[in-house]
Amino acid sequence: MLLSLIALHMVLGMGAAVSVRLLGRNAFLLVAAAPAIGFGWLWSLAPAVIAGAAYVEIAPWIPSLDVSLAFHVGLLQWLLAMLVTGIGVIVLVYCRWYFTRPPARTLGLLVAFAGAMLGLVTADDLVVLYVFWELTTVFSYLMIGHDSSRRANRAAATTALIVTTTGGLAMLIGIVGFGVTTGTFRLHAILATEPTGPAATACALLMLVGALSKSALAPFHFWLPGAMAAPTPVSAYLHAATMVKAGIYLVAALAPVFASVPGWRPALTVLGAATMLLGGWRSLRQNDLKLLLAYGTVSQLGFIMLLVGFGTQSAGQAGLAMLLAHALFKATLFLTVGVIDHATGTRDLTKLSGLVRKLPVLAVVAGLAAASMAGIPPLFGFVAKEAALDALVRVAIDSDGTGVLPAPAVLLVAVIVLGSMLTAAYSLRFWWGAFGYRRRSAAPTIVKHAPEAGFIAGPALLGVSCLVAGFLGGPVTGLLESYTSAIGVGAHPHTLALWHGFTTPLALSAVALTGGAVLFWQRDVVGRVQGTFPQVAAANDFYRWSMRLLDVLAVEVTARTQRGSLASYLSVILSVFLLTVGGTLMLLPVWPDRLHAFDTPAQVVVGAVTCLAALSLITVRGRIRAIITVGVTGYGTALLFLMHGAPDLALTQVLVETASLLVFLLVMRTLPKYFTDRPLHSSRWWRMLLAISVGLTVTASILVSTTSRVAERSSLGLEKAAYEFGYGRNVVNVILVDTRAWDTLGEVSVLIIAATGVASLIFLRSRVQRRPPRTRATNQSSGAWLRTTGALDPAARSLVFEVVTRLLFSVMILISLYLLVAGHNSPGGGFAGGLVAGLALMVRYLAAGAKELEDAAPTDAGRLLGTGLFVAVGSAAMPWVFGGRIFQSYDIHVTIPGLDAVATPWGVVNVFGDLHLVSSTVFDIGVYLIVLGMMFDLVRSLGAGIDQHAEDERTPLPRPESTTALSVSARQNGGSR
Amino acid sequence: MSGNLTLAIVAGVLVASGVYLLTERSLTRILIGVLVMGNGVNLLFMLAAGPAGNPPLLGMFPTESMTDPLPQAMVLTAIVITMAVSAFVVTMAYRSFQLNGNDEVSDDVEDRRIRELAERDDVSDSYEDTSFSDAGEDMVSE
What we know:
heterodimer, A: mainly alpha, two-stranded antiparallel sheet, 9 strands, B: mainly alpha, Helix Hairpins, 4 helices
């Protein structure tokens, strides 16, 4: 039931956007159903739980870690759950009137928070409890930061998040510690074993840190006033009634067993009492009603924490009673502030005046709640405070089984009385500030819109309960009995009641109320005295200081590690390579001795030329020269491939080298002739050292690894498979189009992306050029070798080139098709074929420029790429459509009668008569089209596109024989002159 | 298995030249470095694949004398991808030249700003001072 209840909250939270759109403000009424159901269900549990039984629900979650969704509702859990659900309903209903325009975000978060909070107070498994704990923190963060454009909201939300999660992490350590030392994460099981020893003490204190931060006790208190940046109903629910009670709940659950561990009682007592004074004192200084209440909450939380953590029967009883009282009166007061804010547009008590006449019902309701807060009889707050004073007076008299020394105990009572005085004073200040008259003559504040009945129904209900509960001391005592009696320490407490006779607590209450009244009466004096207090560094400042320190540290570390220089990053990477691989080589005991100098003498010659070319690159200053020199290394590598027995590689390398050379030259023609001069500084020698070391390491490591190979190669048997499953004789090609076709598919996708990237860098806006309608007959002169050369400047034409192009183009296209078809059985394939076809296009461009290219190309480059990918993917998926596997290959033999044996003067020749088609050839056709498309795109962008830029003077003009260029603006100015 | 010294040295020289060029500033030189280094690494693949032999073409050569086809397929992929990527880089060099009048890879401006912050012991831009006034107007929101 609990799990489904929590799930219901979450589902309603997720559907907030929809419900707000459909129902508008009434969506709040819909989602209020979730806590309402929870409340009703808890109500039905009441008899059993009050009798001391517990509701248990367990569902498996992470069995391997022994973590389960275990819930255990004893009296304490039940009480908290009643508060969570009950006040949840009231707040959600109240929101229906509070928000003029319903915020779906806040609605969703609020109801989801209600679910998480319900989970928190009922979870028995501490890991689950922690999850809910942090969920409430996150929801609180999101709701405080509801307006992320405001600095105050952001700062407050971040502070709340950081402070409470810091405590939460400490708590997590405690939870894990308990889990490890006791062997279970179940809270009631851990409590039943009553663990002792240093480990248990440490874990308990760590959990205490989490509880203190969540319940905003000093020194963590400062996040709570900041959290008032959240909408008022959120503050009422999260930051007064429920979430800040999570810490108190945890302490109340642990205290019966752990109150006597070393450090627990002193820490809680000192911090609780200090928080009570601090909150009360600062509350007296606030002019914002909401902030006044927030500091009041801090004060009360300190007080309640002190009581529930004290660990005696009477303190426990008083603590829970205070908790109940506080939830009732503080929620009422917050909701009252919301109504006032809504009605008048301000919460500033220096501006509000005379509202007692304008909003009489609200004034009465708030009066009841404020009186309860101040501890005035016959309200429930008085009853609870009496019990609290009684519990502490007992400690002062005979230590009540706690071993607390008399002097501290008396001091504690005095502090609590002082705190109660402050409480009474700020309660009066609140009510008078909100409803009273500033000066007799002052005009009452204008109430813009009077609150509807539904709006004040919630606060009224809660306010009246403050009064009613005051007379229910007996039943409440009975209600708390099963919790109280479970505490082993201290004498059994009195029944909660309005009248116990003339007792010490009554006298102390009277002193507190009188003192509070005096403080309020002399509020101007108090204010002056407060003004004279020196400003001292507080927890808030420490937090700010440490956050700033963290940021400065981050800046320092970033500045040290992230230099922003490509060269330095590469140097770091390569140094790591040197350190690891080179270091491993250093540790080798035996070096390879089975070396041979070369396979063939030709290898040495080619290798020497390649090396020379590579070394000369270091000093080359001219761009074109560098490009051509790198081409030499490429061709050299191709020859080495060939000698090694890799004709496919050699073919592709030669074609790629040629294509790259042309592509680079197309770009380099526009750049300055020389590389930018760099002053010869010391880094050059370091870089040389690095380069030599890396080269040496590479050579040495490859020699070591090749000579120490013991395993057979993994591709063994691939040859057989290539023919049996791939139906091809060229194993490399079969690998590309069949065995490892997925790789190839990925690769051609990279080609498409790169081509598109190039095109978008040149054309910037759209890759689709406005393609002029094809004018077939551009060049009418009959003797032309190429169609479009007529339009060219005669000086730019080369007749020889035109003739060669005319002759070469068709031949190259034929060769490319041959390579494509033959690739499956002999060197070639889609890559090589596509490259040859692309080169053919490039030749056309070089001979006669952009128009000729347009004329030569069959279609748009983008379409070619797209078609290629479509064909490739289609051929991959096709076998799957017909029940095979993706990329499965099929073998098709076609014999065309008559063509397989054509009689020629040179004998009988087979002219494509006996076709051996393999389905993966289709995939290769896709590859072919993509490579062709890429080449076309490159020529179109880097050739024709850059031509266009030059024509439009959109490129800086390189100065002749220089490393610099004339900028575009200078160029255009010069041109206009 | 015996190691081929010539190929290993050629690969080492290619890689060393590549490393030197890679740490230059001019994008064209960096690109050339990548290409040279790429050639070197492709040679390493060949070396690692095993001793030289006959091309892996079935029916033409005995299977035992063939070289390992798998690294060849990988290198073939690498060659074509290198071409596509280097075309992209060279276009970037052109674009950089078009915009800045040179093709140099300058140091990251943001990183320099962070260094300046560090020298001043300052905080980052994303840092927000989280102070709340007790009753400041800043607090009253909604």
